[in-house]
Design brief:
By secondary structure, this protein is α+β, with helices and mostly antiparallel strands. It folds into three domains: about 5-65, Uridine Diphospho-n-acetylenolpyruvylglucosamine Reductase, domain 2; about 70-225, Uridine Diphospho-n-acetylenolpyruvylglucosamine Reductase, domain 3; about 235-335, UDP-N-acetylenolpyruvoylglucosamine reductase, C-terminal domain (Uridine Diphospho-n-acetylenolpyruvylglucosamine Reductase, domain 1, Alpha-Beta Complex). Helices cover about 25% and strands about 25% of the residues. The protein contains seven helices and 20 strands. The protein has helices at about 30-35, 90-100, 195-205, 210-225, 245-255, 275-280, 310-325, and strands at about 5-10, 20-25, 45-50, 55, 65, 70-75, 80-85, 125, 130, 135-145, 150-155, 175-185, 235, 245, 260-265, 270, 285, 290, 300, 335. It starts with a strand and ends with a strand. Uridine-diphosphate-2(N-acetylglucosaminyl) butyric acid binds next to β13 and α6.
């Protein structure tokens, strides 16, 4: 384990923000992690995974632990499924591709989501009708204060929409070191309930899709709609889709007959924040190097050298405008480091 000094984090966050880490430590296994957590001169740490869900608005003065442990292994084989243990530093999409290559089903709808496996449970990543929780079995984590290992089962994690125990009760207390998934080896549960996937498969004349077909469809849809962080800095959806009351929704629908929505429960409706932001006229706009993506208004982008504070100011302006125009508060999904 070695400590590097004054390292630019530009290459380590998908927004491409040029914040500096005063101390930067690359962690490749559990022993190194424990060693770093026991350094006597430090008491607080900044945990960095794939850097795909954060907006850095300042330099980081506490040690940055870059979780870079690798490894994917099948730990149990059952009749119809296997349990696969994945180290936290594995890239999420590489893991999905490994599953497709090995004919393991369950995560194909989550193709091309940026970030690492170790951070995927924190916000219960989800897309196209599937969430992480649907294949999650357990994760191992190190308690930062005691350096003891704890295993969190599916039930322990309290997964919700872009939410888990790691964003609430135990926020900032643990570092996830590995995740175990249950993946099907046959009779895969193909999920094409999301309209865009059905359309994509139809366009390609696929009637009986395999997990690879679904993965390819998701990749094609995402590539059309979402900017590639390697080309233009972004953190995916910047905001969560707000859930509003049925009464508030019906009032909105009177004015906007075509408003897209998903029914959450009898009295709750989820409205796409991207739609609200587009209605406010922000889609494709640019303010210096901070902007709103031209194909998906939910995604804020860094056109080059935007400062984290400029992106944050744009996010606030969008939130204020949506609140003023629709009386709906939209909340950041991205973790703002301020
Ligand atoms: N829409 C607009 N304008 C926009 C964007 C969207 O009118 O600029 C409308 C679309 O036409 C559609 C509806 O809003 O009718 C929903 O759009 P989309 O299918 O793109 O999904 P989303 O609700 O905007 C969510 C996730 C995405 C995920 C997709 C697909 C959140 C915050 N975002 O977006 O997740 O890929 O569904 O499942 O829930 C991410 O978290 O980084 C992410 C990309």
């Amino acid at each position: 384990m070695s400590i590097q000094h004054n390292v630019s984090l530009k290459a380590y966050n998908t927004f491409g923000i040029d914040a500096k880490a005063k101390y930067f430590i690359s962690i490749t296994n559990k022993a190194e992690l424990i060693e770093a957590l026991q350094l006597p001169q430090f008491s607080e740490y900044f945990i960095l995974g794939g850097g795909s869900n954060m907006l850095l608005t300042k330099d980081i003065d506490i040690p940055v632990l870059h979780i870079n442990s690798k490894g994917i292994e099948i730990i149990k084989t059952n009749d119809n499924d296997v349990l696969v243990k994945v180290q936290a530093g594995e890239n999420w999409h590489d893991f999905v591709l490994w599953c497709i290559e090995n004919n393991l089903g369950g995560v194909e709808n989550l193709s091309l989501i940026p970030g690492n496996v170790g951070t995927s449970p924190i916000q219960n990543i989800g897309a196209y009708g599937i969430e992480l929780k649907d294949t999650f079995v357990a994760c191992a984590a190190i308690h930062i204060a005691s350096q003891e290992e704890k295993v969190f089962s599916l039930g322990d994690c309290n997964f919700g929409y872009r939410n888990s125990i790691f964003k609430n009760e135990v926020k900032g207390e643990y570092i996830i070191t590995s995740v175990v998934f249950r993946l099907t080896t046959k009779n895969h549960k193909i999920n094409t309930s999301y309209g865009a996937i059905q359309q994509e498969l139809e366009d390609n004349n696929i009637t009986n899709p395999t997990i690879k077909d679904v993965s390819n469809a998701v990749i094609a849809i995402r590539q059309r709609k979402l900017p590639d962080p390697k080309k233009i800095g972004n953190s995916g959806s910047f905001f969560k889709n707000p859930v509003i009351s049925k009464t508030a929704f019906e009032l909105l629908q009177q004015k906007h007959a075509k408003i897209p929505h998903y029914v959450v429960s009898e009295n709750e409706i989820k409205v796409p924040a991207g739609w609200l932001i587009e209605q406010c006229g922000f889609k494709g706009k640019r303010f210096g190097d901070a902007g709103i993506h031209e194909n998906q208004a939910l995604v804020l982008v860094n056109h080059g050298d935007a400062k984290g504070k400029e992106i944050l100011a744009l996010a606030k302006k969008i939130q204020d405008t949506v609140l003023h125009q629709f009386n709906i508060s939209i909340e950041a999904e991205v973790n703002v480091i301020a």
